[in-house]
Amino acid sequence: MTDGGPVLTEQQKQYLEGFLAGVKNRGAGDASAASALTPAETKPSGPEAIHIEAQDRAVAAGGKLVPEELAKRAKHPFDMWDEMRANAAAKRFPKGTDVFLHKFHGLFYVAPNQDAFMRRVRLPGGLIAAAQLRGLGDVAETYGGGYAHVTSRLGVLEDTNDIGFAAVAVDGGGAVPAGVYFRMLLGGITGHGDFGRDSGVLLTPAEVVPAAAAVLRVFIAHGDRTDRKKARLKYLLDAWGLEKFMVEAEPALPFKWRRVPPEMCRPRGPIAKHGHVGVHPQRQAGLSYVGVAVPVGYLPVAQLRGLADIAARHGSGTLRLTVWQNLIVSDVPDGALAAVERELGALGLTSTPSHIRGALVACTGNMGCKFALSNTKTHALAIGDWLEARVALDQPLNIHLTGCPASCAQIHVGDIGLLATKVDRGDDEVEGYHVMVGGGAGAERAMARAIYHSVPADAVPAKLEAMLRAYLAHRHDGETFHAFVNRHAVDALVRLFDAAALEIAA
Predict the structure, then answer these.
(1) Half-sphere exposure (CA, 13 Å, Cβ side) for 234?
(2) Cys-Cys with 33: which of 28, 41, 244, 330 at CB 3.0–4.6 Å?
(3) Cis omega before residue 112 (within 30°)?
């Protein structure tokens, strides 16, 4: 204390400057007024300063900020809490660019599908404690629809993310000691047709966070703020090239890039496709993790609480979410595995799903997303029921359904990807899908290829049955579906699949 008052840290001073600037700017009215702010008002010294500077550069270069950028400039998203509370008390939903600003708080207004919010909760590393899961159940019961969804948006596939890190081993030699390192991949966005690009550098575990921060700073400073469709790292890399980007990022690092070509590293081997479900021994003796299949990620409150109880009673109270919309109960003593499986069964869940249901992934669909063109989750469940009753697979298969081209369910890296569309049927328009095959990530890295277009949703299960029957009839010994479709041209696959459909109809 000094002179009876608190001593503020430099960080607190910067935040107050930014906060007061935001309060002052609120009087400007709508977002378009932000363009009239004076330089002193638009250049705070807080964390938002780098964004304001980037906006100024875009305008100075002759660009026009998109409405979302103007909205952030006119009203600081993180200073909206009192306004949001007042709107909630008055039962007012956001309008205009306020819909966008609410997303900073994890609130996605899903009108016209529902006059409600989808509440997105981000879990670092996909980790959640049993008490937290139980708490989410309470929130869902009290304020939501009585359920939650495990999403497909956990970034664990390193070559499908804006920034990804792949573990590799180095055997030693030269200037690099033997050990485990990470390679950094940049610009992955499979919905836009691109995998992450190897940055050419090798990182120790301690260097990963500073490297990610440096990349983010360059993207914040130079990413496109005039075209919302190109506001992703991929497009800055396309414009600059990888080498320029890496040169620009290095000054933000506390070290120099360690330039090491990929061929000097021993990459991680193939990943078990459904290794996230089932019982698997941990490195700790006597403990296993139990991967639980969650049909299309849907968990009603009773299952949320039941899973929390299982993790607390039989494990360490820790659960992990996966990008395949399933979850893992970790640290289970081997002697408790039978009890865990019994209790999962009582909840209507299992750790031993079929090869079809082990990674049957569906985005939110039109029940909760205004962009989706189909009810993806309902259709995914129907596909699972149909195929399980008719096709016996001896290899795991990934089937991904997404409601729009944004591809939240990552259809381009599934063995089978289904992209929602509208299909004309007589005078009506019905929900349907474009069908893609052969996608994969990691060791199976490949972008799925379109094979059928505009298939009505009620015809998709039979179409997939024919595809899988043709695969089983014509594959090499032990060949995966991924390998099978990728050694055939699209027209050859269509002939095989259509012939199987005729045999089924006969």
Answers:
(1) 18
(2) 28
(3) yes
d(CA 77, CA 365): 27
Q: Give the DSSP letter of residue 486.
A: H
What CA–CA distance (Å, rounded) separates 71 from 19? 15
Residue 164 in domain: no
- pLDDT recorded at residue 154: 65
**Domain shared by 466 and 418, yes or no:** yes
Strand ordering across the sheet containing 127-129: 127-129, 318-321, 327-333, 287-292, 278-281
Determine, yes or no, domain membership for 5: no
Q: Do residues 392 and 429 touch, judged by C-beta distance below 8 A? A: no
Q: Quick one: 391 and 369 in the same domain?
A: yes
Q: Give the residue numbers spanning the domain of 427.
A: 359-505
Write the DSSP assignment of 271-308 as a string of letters: PPTTTTSEEEE-SSTTEEEEEEB-GGGEEEHHHHHHHH
Answer whether residue 162 is part of any domain.
Answer: no
281 lies in the same domain as 338: yes
Per-residue DSSP letter, 189: B
Q: Are residues 344 and 372 in the same domain?
A: no
Together in a domain, 335 and 194: no
Angle at 240 between CA 239 and CA 241, to 5 degrees: 105
In the numeric block, which tokens belong to residue 402? 């997404």
Name residues whose C-beta falls within 8 Å of residue 466's C-beta, 6 or more positions apart in sequence. Answer: 497, 498, 500, 501, 504
Residues 162-207 have pLDDT tens digits of 888 888 999 876 678 999 999 999 998 887 778 889 999 999 999 9
CATH assignment at residue 209: 3.30.413.10
Torsion-angle region of residue 498: left (phi > 0), alpha (psi -120 to 50) or beta? Answer: alpha
End of a domain among 105, 139, 165? 105
The CA dihedral of 171, 176, 179, 184, to the nearest 10 degrees, is -110
What is the CB-side half-sphere exposure of residue 37 using CA atoms within 13 A?
A: 28
Question: Can you spell out the DSSP letters for 33-52?
Answer: GGGG--HHHH--SSTTHHHH
Q: How many domains does the chain have?
A: 4
> Rounded to 5 degrees, what are φ and ψ at 222?
-125, 0
Determine how many CB atoms are found less than 10 A away from the CB of residue 396. Answer: 19
Q: What is the pTM of this model?
A: 0.85
- Check whether residue 236 and residue 304 sit in a common domain: no
- What DSSP state is assigned to residue 347? T
Here the tokens at position 133 are 């899961």
Q: What is d(CA 419, CA 193) in angstroms, rounded to the nearest whole number?
A: 14
Same domain, 219 and 322: no
How far is it, in rounded angstroms, from Cα 160 to Cα 442? 9
Mean pLDDT value across residues 328-348: 97
357-384 residue pLDDT tens: 998 999 989 888 888 999 999 999 999 9
pLDDT digits (tens, 9 = 90+) for 417-446: 999 999 999 999 999 999 999 998 878 889
Specify if 440 maps to a domain: yes
